[in-house]
Design brief:
This protein is an alpha/beta fold. It folds into two domains: 61 residues, Helicase, Ruva Protein, domain 3; 218 residues, Rossmann fold (3-Layer(aba) Sandwich), CATH 3.40.50. The protein contains 13 helices and seven strands. Strands 1-7-6-5-2-3-4 form a seven-stranded mixed β-sheet, with helices on both faces. The chain is globular, with a radius of gyration of 18 Å. The chain starts with 7 loop residues before the first helix and ends in a 6-residue tail after the last strand.
């Protein structure tokens, strides 16, 4: 069975992103050295064949923040990504208006999925949203949108789990379409403090997600992805009692697939690295909308 544990490339990516984060967090070379030394120790102790990339990544973020004192090195970049995505929304909304009703969910999913390119410092990933949207007419490599649509009824309780800042602006289009189809959509953003460029409540409010969704909440946890072992009980209850889940991004895929899906769950993301692409059965740099049944896990 293919599982999503760390592979050899994950080690390179974890260190590369860690170094880039350290550089953004402090200009002091002594502090940078201390942070890198601690990161190498963390990797030496915890990097093994049973480790999940996003779990180790979360520990890396906490370590770097603790040593450098910088809790949000990507703050300015996230604001710029939100602003850029908002500037592109009118064109995306026009695209939706021109789309036939039966194709609207697919188009909204493609728009939302292409927003998932915004992931800083992933080796080999082009994080340019403007470049990504040039491929909007390309098909989803895995396309389970029709299956998802068939499951949506009036007042279906759908939990939408966001990923990154900037991307979250394009997610509003998908959230609105899910609502148009009859779902009651609750959108959950990360609780904070910040982890990489994950969307927080401030980002969701900046892009108007509170107006697109029926309810806007946080995950209640500081972790990258969904970590039920760190989540408060109220969020675990919401998660387990949802009728459907739409989960954005590779970190949610990496962490959520460790446990049986509590309900039919559609993962929407770009395959930005080889280990994730291999696990989902797709080439790299493809758009994925993969629906799994209740109880499924890697």
């Amino acid at each position: 069975m293919i599982t999503l544990k760390v592979g050899s490339r994950c080690g390179y990516c974890l260190l590369h992103r860690g170094y880039q984060m350290i550089k953004l967090s402090t200009d002091d070379e002594e502090t940078r050295f201390q942070a890198m030394d601690a990161l190498l120790e963390l990797m030496g102790n915890d990097f093994d064949s049973n480790c999940v990339p996003s779990v180790l990544g979360a520990e890396r973020e906490r370590l770097i923040a603790r040593i450098t004192g910088c809790v949000d090195p990507y703050k300015e970049r996230k604001v710029k990504e939100n602003e850029l995505a908002l500037s592109l929304l009118p064109d995306m909304e026009k695209k939706m208006d021109e789309t036939l009703p039966d194709e609207k969910l697919r188009t909204a999913t493609k728009i939302s999925c292409l927003g998932n390119v915004i992931d800083y410092d992933v080796p080999g990933n082009n994080a340019s949203l403007e470049d990504a949207l040039m491929f909007l007419d390309n098909p989803l490599y895995i396309d389970d949108t029709d299956k998802l649509k068939s499951m949506i009824e009036d007042d279906t309780d759908l939990l939408f789990l966001t990923d990154n800042a900037g991307e979250v602006a394009l997610d509003t289009i998908l959230v609105k379409e899910l609502g148009r189809l009859g779902a009651r959509v609750t959108v959950a953003v990360k609780n904070g403090p910040p982890a990489l460029n994950d969307a927080l409540m401030v980002d969701a409010l900046m892009v108007g997600m509170d107006k697109a969704a029926d309810e806007l909440i946080t995950t209640g946890a500081e972790a990258i992805g969904i970590r039920l072992d760190e989540s408060p009980q109220w969020f675990i209850d919401r998660y387990n009692n949802s009728d459907l889940i739409v989960a954005k991004g590779m970190a949610n895929w990496e962490t959520m697939t460790e446990n049986p899906a509590p309900c039919p769950t559609m993962y929407v993301f770009r395959t930005k690295c080889e280990p994730v692409a291999r696990a989902v059965g797709a080439p790299e740099n493809q758009s994925i909308a993969y629906l799994v049944e209740k109880g499924w896990k890697l």
